Amino acid sequence: MFRTTVVNFDPNTAQASPAFGAQEVGDLSGDELRELLEIFRGIDPIQNVEADPEVHVESRRSRYVIRTGQNRLLFSDPRKVLEPALVLSPEAIVAELDGSAAAARTRAPFVIPPTASTEPVLQTAAVPTVSALRLPHRIAFAVAAVVLAGYIAYPTLSAEPVPPPPYFTPFADAKQEDAQREALSGVYMTGAQAGQTGIALTADGSLRLFQINTQGTPSLIQDTYRLGRIGNVVYILSNQPGGPIRVNEGNTLSFCGETYSRLP
Hints:
Blueprint: E1 2-7, E2 9-10, E3 15-16, E4 22-28, H1 30-40, H2 45-51, E5 54-59, E6 62-69, E7 72-76, E8 86-88, H3 90-98, H4 100-106, H5 135-158, E9 168-170, H6 174-184, E10 186-189, E11 197-201, E12 206-211, E13 219-224, E14 226-230, E15 233-237, E16 245-248, E17 252-255, E18 258-262
Antiparallel strand pairs: 1-4, 1-5, 2-3, 5-6, 6-7, 7-8, 9-14, 10-11, 10-18, 11-12, 12-13, 14-15, 15-16, 16-17, 17-18
Helix pairs in contact: 1-3
């Protein structure tokens, strides 16, 4: 059973609104949770942006947060802020919660043991091999092999050890982070044509990812973010798949292999 709480979402009407607040649904079975998640990911996109609904699930003393956007479910562990949310189906989320997915990932492959042969084995005496090289030639080849091995190994042994990758470190000074958010607030886009994507940042810590559609309003995902550094570079960390967003010089951002330029 999974203890479930919905935030800004009413499963009975499939509506999302900030007026609903947090409501405890209770303990749900796997099938009941799958049905709820199917309803949840079908929320009206406009209501989803305005209400930012969530489903909180407690399983095996851990709590998980599920969001939705573009009919997808985003599954995350709030304790692991550096790990991006996983895009999973309702069935896959239940498998993650009940442990069956982890068990499948660690299950050893099935190995067929070799069958004992009933055929008699012919035992043959080992015949000593005789080197065709004379002793001086063998010594010369041995010395050359040692020198060659040392030449090949030297660059590896003499190279400096590779430092471990840096980690995301949040800003320790709240005022510094507020000033950085104020400086970064704006809209960044990869282009203005249909299919291009954008990132909108506000000074209060809100983040919106959107895509320009050929017809209708842009597709939109709403989230929050925080600022920090990886090494000496400023990064934006949200709950969306794709990892942190790099802040570049020249009013640009890098995310998922694309460059986003700030609109004037």
